[in-house]
Amino acid sequence: MYMTVEETADFLSMPLDQVKRYIAEKKIRAVFDGEQYVVNSAQFETHLEQVEELKRQIDEWRNTPIPEDIDVKDED
User: Fold this and answer.
1) Which residues of 30-51 are buried (b: 16+ CB within 10 A; e: fewer)?
2) 2-63 belongs to CATH 1.10.20
3) So what's the pLDDT on residue 74?
4) Separation of alpha carbons 19 and 71, rounded Å
5) Are the C-beta atoms of 38 and 4 separated by less than 8 Å?
6) Would you call 11 helix, strand, or coil by DSSP?
7) Is the dihedral of CA 16, 10, 2, 39 positive or negative?
8) Shortest CA distance to 22 belongs to which of 7, 5, 42, 35?
9) What is the DSSP annotation of 27-66?
10) Could you read off the pLDDT tens digit of each residue along the chain, which spans 76 residues?
11) Which residue, 13, 57, 4, is CA-closest to 35?
12) How many CB atoms lie within 10 A of CB 19?
C-alpha cells in the first residue's frame, strides 16, 4: 500500500519536515508518481516487528527474578 508523505508522517508520528528529510537522505524509500512522492508502507513492517520483539525481550528480562547467590548461605 502506498501512502503520501503526509500520511507517512501521521503513520510514523513524525513531523512532516523530518519525513521529507529522511526521503531526501534516502532513509525512507519513496517514488515520485508525477505529482507527488508516495511511500510504500511495507518497508516499515519489518522495522516495527523488530521493535516489538525488542520490547518483549526487555520486558522478559525485567521480569526475570534475580537468582539467589549461592555463597550467601555458605558459612565458612
Assistant:
1) beeeeeebbbeeeeeeeeeeee
2) no
3) 57
4) 55
5) yes
6) helix
7) positive
8) 5
9) SS-EEE-SSSEEEEGGGGHHHHHHHHHHHHHHHHHHHSPP
10) 899 999 999 998 999 999 999 999 998 999 999 999 999 988 888 878 888 999 999 999 999 988 777 666 656 5
11) 4
12) 23
Per-residue cell: 61: 528480562
Q: Provide the CB-side half-sphere exposure for 35 (13 A, CA).
A: 1
| HSE-up of residue 22 (Cα within 13 Å, Cβ side) | 15
Cell numbers of 25, please? 537522505
Give residue 54's pLDDT.
94
